[in-house]
Each structure stands twice: as structure tokens, then as C-alpha cells.
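Question thread 4412

I'm putting together a teaching handout and wanted feedback from people who do this every day. The idea is simple: show students a protein as raw sequence, then show them the C-alpha cells that encode its fold, then repeat with a second protein so they can compare. Below is the first pair exactly as I plan to print it.
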Amino acid sequence: MAEYRNLLVAIDPNQDDQPALRRAVYLVQRLGGRIKAFLPIYDFSYEMTTLLAPDERMEMRKGVIEQRTEWIAQQCRYYLEAGVQIDIKVVWHSKPFEAIINEVISGQHDLLLKMAHQHDRLEAVIFTPTDWHLLRKCPCPVWMVKDQPWPENGRALVAVNLASEDPCHDPLNIKLVTETLALARQVNQTEVHLVGAYPVTPVNIAIELPDFDPGVYNDAIRGQHLIAMKSLRQKFGLDEQLTHVEKGLPEEVIPDLAEHLQAGIVVLGSLGRTGLSAAFIGNTVEHVIDHLKCDLLAIKPDDFVCPLSPDEEESAS
């Protein structure tokens, strides 16, 4: 399993409170390890300053980087004084998600933490385009931290795919449960629940086939999912009360159960589909997290290949 001891925190440049940094400190105080506070910055106006010579523009960049580095140091001051190891790095880069992923790869980080903003009125987590890129393309697990206090006795809810059509889901399910249980034991003995969703009867089938019995179909589908869930929980010695098989779409079932259980975090597998496959097949993780009100940990399968090539890297100088 991942050690989660070399953490990269993507700093939010727009506010002084840094929930992702706070969560990272919480982890290293229990697991050990170190943190890198990382901020990519870019101001297009500096690139358009044609009246300045290139070396003068470079000095302006350097000044901005130094100012931001000092600002992050102030955010980290209390933790540094408490003995937490935190490195600070600020780079000039026009695409934040590329800079972050490049840093994950070059620094061999095993966990990325980033703040997810909370919508005050709806209480739903709001994800930015940078967040989506990271969830799809970052090779290490991505922990999206909600800017709200961790709920009292908050549980961990692992969303598993119990359908057997795609063979990649079985090892990913094992990985999700293994890593969540290990993290729960190491951090605070968090109670871990598993949830799987199964589809309802397609309305058009029930209409077009007069002899079709929706009740029999639903029972058969539910039975298959219950058997798959039983097999999965028995591998880890989990009590049946900690597993849930619910009828409905994952984007409805998972957020509803997370709220009912007062989960502090939902753990999801992300296949990282991009391009046409994402458009036609859809990314379940993206549909689900639109409705979440808690932290999210997205984990890729072992055979995931980051779609960013070295040619896409941009100079940070």
C-alpha cells in the first residue's frame, strides 16, 4: 500500500486559511514523513510588459516568487515551530495542474492534498477545472479537502464497483479497501464502510417487452451485487453491517449514504479516463463528487499511466 509519507500540498493562493495543509499536518503527525507546500503562480500581465527587457521581467517574476514564498512561510510558521517538516516551493507556470503533476512525479510524492471549496448555500463541494485535471491525470492519490471541520466520529466510506463487466474493477476494489483500512488503523481507528450501487430496471425494457418482469430482474441484479459484496468483505473480515448495497445511480447513492453515515471522507477509484472515452463512457467519480459534502480521496489503479508527457512540461524558470 502507499505509505502517504511524502505529501505534496497544493496551496490555495486566494486565502490565508489552508485546510489541505492542516490535513497534511494531521497525517504526518500520526504517520511520520514530510510535507512540501507547493504553489504555481502566473501573471500574464508580466509576459505582456513589452517595455521591459527580458532580464527585467525575470527580476519581476523572481520578486513575486519571493513574496509568495514568504507568505507561505507565514502560513506554515506555527507548524514549523511545532517540529513539522515542511518544504516550500513556488514556481512560475501558466498551467497549475501541469506544474502540480510534474512536481508529484519529480518529487516522487505519494499523496497530493488540495482544498475543495464549499458552496455556502448548497453545501456541496465545488471543483475547479484544475481539480478535474488533477483527479483525472495525477498519478498519485488525490485528497480533496473540504474547508469544513472533520465531523465528530467521521467514518470513511469506500465506493466499490461490484459489476463484473470490467475486469479492472476487481483489483481496484481490493486496492481501495486495503489502503483505506490501513490508513484508518494508522491514523485514528476510523470506522470503514463499503458501498456498492446497482441499477434500476430500464424503463424502456419494461415497456417494450410485455413478458419482462422488473421485480425478478431487480432481485437478480441485487443478488449478484450482494454476492460480490459478501466476497469482498470476507477478504478483509468486515462485518456485514459495515457493507451497503443500494439501488440507484452511484452519484445519488454514494453522497446520500455518506451524509447519512456522517462520513468524513469518501474513497473512490478513478480510472482517469480522458478524451473521447470520458465523453462516451463517462467518469463515475466525477458524477459522484459533484454531490459530495465531505472530503474525497481518489485512487488510481496500479496500471494507471499519467497522460502528461515530458514534452508538455513547461519551464518553471
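The second pair follows. I'd like the answer to focus on this one:
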Amino acid sequence: MKQEEIRERLFELQDIGYKEFNCKLIPGVDPDSVIGVRTPALRNLAKEIFKSGDYREFVEDLPHKYYEEVNLHGMIICFIKDYEEAICKVDKLLPYVDNWATCDLLSFKKAFKGNLNKLENDIKRWIASNETYTVRFGIGVLLEFYLDDAFDSKYLEWVARVESDEYYVKMIKAWYFATALAKQYEATIPYIENHTLEEWVHRKTIQKAKESYRVSDETKEYLNTLK
């Protein structure tokens, strides 16, 4: 499908009330670039387009004009199962990701889950980037895939060493460490006890861990003493 055809479909799904609501959640995004399409409708369209096989022209036609076009692009390529193709497609898209919402919807379970060893080199490359949302995406991949059976304490160090003054990088670092406290407590708690993280991330990690239902009340009380 061509860009124009897809754009027409998106405007058919437009919800002005949702547009006004959504614009408040994505600061920095030009409201004129937002059509106003609810996420379930966008996902259904992405699935339809991917299943048709007629998506390659659209995902090569960058940059997109509208916020939803970028999100739809991301949702489509997340269906790709081939690892190399998925990496190629996400690398082409990431330079055009300019907000947390688009970044956080990128979840490549089909391509990444069975290739975690291979994926390490790409994660290192992403978190070493100078681009805010490329770094955020890389840390998000570590959060999604490497805090359970694939966990290794080296990943904590990778994230701890990421240096950035960008709010959305610092926030994903805090989110990562708060989740790590819930899933890999023994390996993670020294980073909090020793104040290894920058102060803002340290405090935000404790806050988010205390808000988590996966962290015990006893641990939350202890975290209070480490502020």
C-alpha cells in the first residue's frame, strides 16, 4: 500500500476527542502531526496490512508526516519474524522516533526472543547512541527480554553506565532498575545501597519500586532507608 492509501485509512479512523487527549500525553509532538487514532484500531490496521504482505513500500517511505504513521510503521515491523530483517527495519525507523510513546510500543518478540545472544551486540550499539530514543529503545529491550531467564548481572552494569541528561533516558533507567529490583533483587540492590546511579535516577528507581505490586512491603521499607 502506498503512503497516501494508508493515510486515507488513518483519517477514516480519526477520533478528534482522542486526539486532544493523546496530545497531552506526548509533549514535544506537534499537535498538527497527530490524527487521533486509538491504539487498538491502529494495531488492527497494522495487522491487516502486515498480513496482506503489502507493507514494504510504506515502511521504506520515510520520513512520515503523521505521528500515527510512524506508530503504524512500528507496529507493522514488530510482526516480522526474521531477525536480520527486523534489525534492519528498526534501525531505519529509530532516527525518526521522537517521543516516548512511539519508542515504547516497539516490541519485537517474534524476532528477538529466540536470538538473545545475537541481540547483545545490537543493544550495545543502541545504548551507545547519541539519540535519546535509540538509547531508550535499547534499555527497553534489556528490560523486556533480559530480566528473567536470560538475566546476567553484566546487563545491570551496561544500563548503569549509560550517561544522559535526557529525561526520557533517565526515566527508562529508573524503570529498568525498579523492575530489576522486583525480578533480580540480590544482584540489583547493591546499586541502590551503594548509590551507584546518578541521584535523580536513584530516587526515581526507589519511587517506582515502591509503587510496584511486585516488590514486597519489607523491601519497600528497606528502600525508604536508602533514599
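Top answer:
Good format. For the second protein you could add a caption like this: The two ends are 53 Å apart (CA to CA). The chain has 15 helices and no strands.
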